[in-house]
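Journal club prep — side note

Before the paper discussion, L.F. wants everyone to see what a predicted structure for a comparable chain looks like in token form. Sequence:
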Amino acid sequence: MSVHKTVIITGASQGIGAGLVKRFLDKGWNVVGTSRNISESTLFDRAGRLELISGDVADPKTAERAAAAAIEQFGSIDALVNNAGVFFTKPFLEYTIDDFRRLCATNVEGFLHFTQRAIGQMLRQKSGGSVVTITSSLTDHPIAGVTASLPMATKGGLNAVTKSLALEFAKDNIRVNALSPGVVDTPLHAKNPRSFLESLSPMGTITAVQEIVDGVVYLTESSNITGEVLHVDNGAHLGKW
């Protein structure tokens, strides 16, 4: 059994997820990273402290395999980062039920599968743990012209369940938090004009992946923070600017 702590990270193949894998490895954690095709990735040094599991987070078997890998290879699950997510915009009347089911499958069902398995294992270990979920600043402060109503129905639900679970498992020293980004410099926004992206926060800046990674690590390691939705969004949640 490893003396290092172990974190499971979903959506780990690029952007925020890849940044998280590298940071946690640098900090001495064991890491189990998942995404649809991550086992084919050449991004990561295949060190002894890294397991890569390919699969869709919406499939409960992916969570089962990730949890089993963590326990068999490293002996524990001490933290989970629910990073995998789907986001796309449409006028509300153009969203289809299939769009909604796709959003729910990844954003909500994926959260459910991984979080249930992680917390179940943390309870068996009796040594506490941390769950951090990536949500969105748009849940608090919609922006005119960014028509993301259905994605925000799912992300807002994640903010709500974070607070419920934080209270449910507080006595077990299992902390449950969310990190709420604004616009992050990831491949998701590769086709958007930079000037448009900069207009989406009062600071007029775009968040670097590293800033989100820093926030997640902070929540994971902060033993007195639970039920928090930490905004790393250049002030976008504050109101009209």
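L.F.'s comment for the group: The chain has one domain: 6-232. Keep this in mind when we get to the figures.
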